[in-house]
Amino acid sequence: MEDHTNEPLYLYPIWIRLWHVLNALLCLTLIVTGLSIQFANPTITVRFNVAVVIHNIAGVLLSINYIIFFIGNLFTKNGAYYVIEVKGYFKRLKTQFHHYTVGVFRKEKAPFPVTPDSKFNPLQQISYVGVMYIIIPLVILSGLGLLYPEITVHSLLGISGLDYTDLLHLFCGFMVTLFLCIHVYFCTFGKTAISNFKSIVNGYH
Ligand code: HEM
């Protein structure tokens, strides 16, 4: 996210910063414990059980934190940054993609500089909408289904509903992990490598 004005813009209100830090810590905890559950050594059951307990608690906390994000975006102006204007969107996405793959290395100006009305560039917008309104809700719902198997579909086409739920949960967990790696990398494309990280801490871009 590049900026070409010198005026600091207050773009990350305190509630979004608190949500974000908690969300990041919980996602990291869920990824580590999730991997440790998936690749558990069947002979070391204590470690497996501890990972399951931590994973379940972190999952519940992430869900509560997600509700805060959802309601916050519904009732504050932060939600407007997540509304994608469909007209001309793909052209804008292509321009941003070209900037990230070519322009950045030629030190070209950002095609969509940050303004009070537009905090995210088209690529950030689609990835934040995708992760926050599709992937995270799916990981939460499939996690709930695994925590309370009685609420999942009993069986479909001869395969247990729990197997589908598990597959969906694994897929979404993988997507969150992928998002996180790409997200942190792209956050280094600021005015300096650390300026975006400072913004999500002090609120000012
Ligand atoms: C170590 C973990 C993480 C770091 C260092 C990090 C870093 C950042 C930074 C620097 C920003 C501000 C730049 C921008 O707005 O693009 C940001 C915003 C954002 N991050 Fe992260 N992030 C992390 C984890 C996550 C995770 C796990 C998610 C979601 C699953 C996430 C979702 C978002 C969203 C939606 C925003 C925009 C918030 C808003 O202003 O409305 N981040 N992150």
**Beta strands, count:** 2
Name the structural class. mainly alpha
Regions with little confidence, pLDDT below 50 for 5+ residues: none
Bound molecules: protoporphyrin IX containing FE
CATH topology: Fumarate Reductase Cytochrome B subunit
Shape: elongated
Q: Please list the strands of the largest sheet in the order they lie side by side.
A: 1-2
Count helical runs: 6
Largest β-sheet summary: 2 strands, antiparallel
Q: How much of the residues is beta strand, in percent?
A: under 5%
Helix content: 55-70%
Return Rg in Å. Answer: 19 Å
What is the CATH first-level class name? Mainly Alpha
In whole angstroms, how far apart are the ends?
9 Å
CATH H-tier superfamily: Transmembrane di-heme cytochromes, Chain C
Order of helices and strands: HHHHEEHH
Oligomeric assembly: single chain
Going by CATH, the architecture would be Up-down Bundle
Mean of pLDDT: 94
Domains, number: 1
